[in-house]
From TrEMBL:
Coiled coil: none annotated. CDD domains: FliS. It comes from Thiomicrorhabdus lithotrophica. Keywords: Bacterial flagellum biogenesis, Cell projection, Chaperone, Cilium, Cytoplasm, Flagellum. Belongs to the FliS family. It comes from the Bacteria. This is Flagellar secretion chaperone FliS. The lineage of its organism: Bacteria, Pseudomonadati, Pseudomonadota, Gammaproteobacteria, Thiotrichales.
């Protein structure tokens, strides 16, 4: 198998793996995957920022922005109260800060958002197991109790 075919096969396998992981994931696991994605893309973008490879920096920061925007739009502000409003505001702050960091090539802003998402990720992983394994309908039931 030539190198191009191997690369295409690996990409297809990785794509199928991600699709399967997402389709089988609980809501808790999906958020965890998104947090990990933001962290991964921010770390990679820092490397490219330091190397002055602005095309690749922009690609990874745009991925981060897309994930953060997805997290933001997934917050149910209408039904989940103050906690949801606060997390929405935090995601919005992170989005604006990453955007600014990209524009200004500011590593310190990337570090700040990396710290926030690392803390969120660590806290998210400490949720009780009944929440981690809950389906979307079970979570809605718990939210309205």
């Amino acid at each position: 198998m030539n190198q191009l075919r191997q690369k295409q096969f690996a990409q297809k396998y990785a794509s199928n793996y991600v699709e399967t992981s997402v389709s089988e994931a609980t809501p808790h696991k999906l958020v965890q995957m998104l947090y990990e994605g933001v962290i991964r893309h921010l770390k990679v973008s820092k490397v490219f920022m330091e190397q002055k490879n602005y095309e690749k920096k922009a690609f990874h920061l745009n991925k981060s922005l897309s994930i953060i925007n997805g997290l933001k739009t997934g917050v149910d502000i209408e039904n989940a109260g103050d906690v949801a409003a606060n997390i929405y505001e935090l995601y919005d702050y992170c989005y604006r800060t990453v955007f600014s960091a990209s524009r200004d090539n500011d590593l310190s802003k990337i570090d700040e958002i990396l710290t926030i998402f690392s803390d969120l990720d660590e806290s998210w992983k400490q949720m009780p197991s009944e929440i981690k394994q809950a389906t979307r309908s079970k979570i809605k039931t718990l939210a309205h109790q």
